[in-house]
Specification:
Length: 118
């Protein structure tokens, strides 16, 4: 049940935003906030952020033989999302790309803290 909600909600929202672009679903104000603040080519990144949260929780809660393997999983997930953020830079360019820089700084701080424990 929890996996259905954790992966289902971002998947359904992604489906609505990706495949129902010019319909009443995406013109509705209930879905419009999901793409606000992102560049037009990265309008679906709110779903990516939801997926990132689920992946981090799973990486932290999965059984591990020792603490280092858990930290390595967290670092790997964090590194993948840092790389994705640097490739796409999803936020729009208001205020000299402030949101992109803040997100990159937060993800980098997360990865440094995971790496320092290793």
């Amino acid at each position: 049940g929890i996996c259905l909600y954790s992966f289902g909600i971002p998947a359904i929202l992604f489906h609505c935003m990706q495949f129902l672009k010019n319909s009443w679903v995406t013109d509705n104000a209930a879905f419009r906030w999901l793409a606000d603040g992102f560049e037009p080519r990265c309008y679906y990144f709110e779903c990516v952020f939801m997926f990132r949260k689920v992946m981090l929780i799973l990486a932290a809660r999965m059984p591990a033989q020792n603490v280092k393997s858990r930290e390595l999983r967290l670092f790997t997930v964090g590194f993948l999302f840092v790389a994705m953020h640097h490739v796409y830079s999803p936020f729009d360019n208001r205020q000299f790309e402030l949101m992109d820089r803040l997100e990159a700084a937060g993800l980098t701080a997360f990865n440094i803290s995971c790496f320092s424990i290793l």
